[in-house]
Amino acid sequence: MMEVEVRRVEGSTFMARGPSSHWVVMDAKPENYGHDGGARPIELVLMALGGCSGIDVELILRKMRVNVRDFRIQLSGERADSEPRKYTRIHVAYHFWGDNLPREKLERAVRLSEEKYCSVTHTINASVAITSEVVIHAGDESA
């Protein structure tokens, strides 16, 4: 079992810490008694999905001996109009930079993360439609 602690700092500002002992700041807008000093919890859902899958894809590509110059993940989430305003759709775009990158291996790494390894994907995909794409960029233009 994994346990995390969430502490109220002041108003709607909270800090959370899990087994890794790293603190994460979560906050609300000032009109919701926050200080706008941290990510919103709903943003962290997308960040967790991108981080989880990103780690998987990195490890898989290393095992496949695929060298990418840069790798970024862009996530977008559509939310319901009414409360609880949960995500209804999430799109994940995996961007890779490098020369002569093997599309089939990049797509396989992403597929393995989505279908087998990423615990965050498997936690939320029963209630949220998740789509993805692989985008390959030649050269160094990852700014």
Secondary-structure map with pairings?
Blueprint: E1 5-10, E2 13-17, E3 23-26, H1 41-64, E4 70-79, E5 87-97, H2 103-117, H3 119-124, E6 129-137
Count of the domains: 2
Proper CATH architecture of the largest domain: 2-Layer Sandwich
| DSSP, total strands | 6
Residue fraction in strands: 25-35%
The CATH topology annotation of the largest domain reads as: GMP Synthetase, Chain A, domain 3
Helix content: 25-40%
Distance between the termini: 40 Å
Question: In the CATH hierarchy, what is the superfamily of the largest domain?
Answer: K homology (KH) domain
Q: Under the CATH scheme, which class of the largest domain?
A: Alpha Beta
Order of strands side by side in the largest beta sheet? 1-2-3
- Helix and strand pattern: EEEHEEHHE
Which radius of gyration do the C-alpha atoms yield?
17 Å
Structure description:
- The chain folds into two domains: 1-39; 41-137, 2-Layer Sandwich (GMP Synthetase, Chain A, domain 3).
- The longest helix is centred in the middle third of the chain and has 24 residues, at 41-64.
- The model has no long low-confidence stretch (mean pLDDT 95).
- With 143 residues, it is an alpha+beta fold.
- 31% of the residues lie in helices and 31% in strands.
- The strands form two sheets. A three-stranded antiparallel sheet has the order 1-2-3, with no helix packed on it. A three-stranded mixed sheet has the order 4-5-6, covered by helices on one side.
- The protein is built from three helices and six strands.
- The chain starts with a strand and ends in a 6-residue tail after the last strand.
- The chain has helices spanning 41-64, 103-117, 119-124, and strands at 5-10, 13-17, 23-26, 70-79, 87-97, 129-137.
